[in-house]
Amino acid sequence: MSKKREQAHQEEEAGEAWLLPYSDLMTLLLAVFIVLFAVSKIDAQKAQQISQEFSSSMMNKEYNGQGSGSGSGSGGSGPISNSSPSDATPAGGPLNIETESELESFLGEYELKKLETLKKEIDTKLHDDGMDQSASTMIDMRGLVIRLNNAIFFDSGSAQIKKQSEETLMEVANLLNTVDNYIRIEGHTDNVPIKHSSYPSNWELSTARAVNVVKLFIDKESFSPNKLIAVGYGEYKPVADNSTDEGRAKNRRIDIIILSSKYNNLEEQLVK
Fold first, then answer.
1. Total domain count, the chain
2. Torsion over CA of 124, 128, 133 and 137, rounded to 10 degrees?
3. How far apart are CA 139 and CA 119, in angstroms?
4. Which domain holds residue 37?
């Protein structure tokens, strides 16, 4: 009887022996899990802190240079532009204006130089035609932007291009006709509601003006319609403060944009 009891006791001890290493293993896994959780939590907090600091620095980034062009040439941290700083800065704060080094990094040295050469040709043409005060050019990440004051090219509330301004547009178009990239024509207005016009809203007026510039390029300068884009933004893309006469005058504009290669490739993907 005692032998049976001793044998049963030994079997019980042998049967429970596995619990000890299993318990050690579970303890070790728990310790590893705690360590990993603590490390990941620190990394997450650190990543969040870095992200916040980066976002804050980008939000507060300002550029004080005026770039190159007919204005003051000091600084090197503004856009490549022949317009004054007030032309490019709305009342709400500084625009996301790229420095020349950022442009070269985004566009590439070759494309930037090509756009700069074309910009100089257009600046010369605008100067020769006495259009310095009503037209300006700049290079940003979208490409080369030719900004035209609506008052010179259109009567108030009208989308018909003034006859005396057609020649200037055609001369500019002639310089652009050899460009392979897409050219986007953007119409913009101020925020004053339309009165005494055949167009019910600024949106439709701005679109009609962009379309008429496109039609002029096609009809008079034989542009391929495939590479022209007409867009109307109405009052919804201001570049200046609409609460002043000067700001509203700057917002009434036509932007002719020769798209950079990256924007051009994106456009090609969109139209497929």
1. 2
2. -20
3. 8
4. 2-57
